[in-house]
Amino acid sequence: MKESDLFEPVKNYLETSGYKVRAEVRNCDITATKGDELIIVELKLSANLQLFIQATDRQYITDSVYVAIPKSTKRSKKHWKGILHILRRLELGLIIVDIDNPVNPVEIVFHPIEFQRRKFKHRKRAIIKEVENRSQNLNVGGSNKKKIITAYKENAIQIAVYLSIIGATSAKNLREYDSSKKTLSILYSNFYGWFQRIDRGVYDITANGKKELRKFPGLVKKYENYLSDFRKNNE
Questions:
Q1: Is 117 contained in some domain?
Q2: Backbone angles phi, psi at 199, to 5 degrees
Q3: Tell me, what DSSP letter sits at residue 169?
């Protein structure tokens, strides 16, 4: 398929709607006029950065700018949702062209309208809380397919270190050593398989937990020292 294959269906649709359509006018793929109204349509085989650059440049000419791309069944739902968000955020219209549909080859997904940006306060609170609960910067930005040390995991490491030193004890006792407020939940859910319940309300670290702690020498040392200092200061 070529970009020019998209031209005829879009042209016919606009002409049926009463517009005068012309191609390649001052670098615009399609221009459609009706009185003083001007629509510009940029044609591309995919929604890519070059398309966004071209389309937003046309917004210096008119607010009615559309991008037209062919229909595809290969787009992932998540990726496509992101593309739609970007187009709306850029205040561009979207046209989908199905050249295999002789009856209705053109679908106007949405028109160019002013983008109303919303902020999700709960997302902001979640990020701030996560930042506050991480004691160190243990991850590298831009890493892919690497396990991230979250605040939850750091709390689990802290509890595991305490249990490896103190021995089997309760969540209440661990909290006295300033472990996480989620101590009981972390022990009970045992997400990483590091803990085992040996009596009512009493937990211990598993052999797997001790093995996994070796992967985090910096945090282990930190919480060993913290526990030692805490005991000295509270004797």
A1: no
A2: -160, 175
A3: E
Q: What share of the chain is helix, strand, coil (3-state, %, to 5)?
A: 45, 20, 35
Strand order in the sheet with 169-170: 169-170, 202-205, 195-199
Q: What is the DSSP string of 37-104?
A: EEEEEEE-SS--HHHHHHHHHHTTT-S-EEEEEE--S---HHHHHHHHHHHHHTT-EEEEE-TT-SS-
- Looking at 66, 88, 110, the residue that finishes a domain is 110
- Domain holding 42, by residue range, is 3-110
Name the token pair of 23: 């191609």
Spell out the per-residue pLDDT of the chain, length 235, in tens. 888 899 999 999 999 999 999 999 988 999 999 999 999 999 999 999 999 999 999 999 999 999 999 998 677 888 999 999 999 999 999 999 999 898 899 999 999 988 777 777 887 788 787 778 777 776 766 666 667 888 899 999 999 999 999 999 999 999 988 888 889 999 999 999 999 999 999 999 999 999 999 999 999 999 999 898 888 887 6
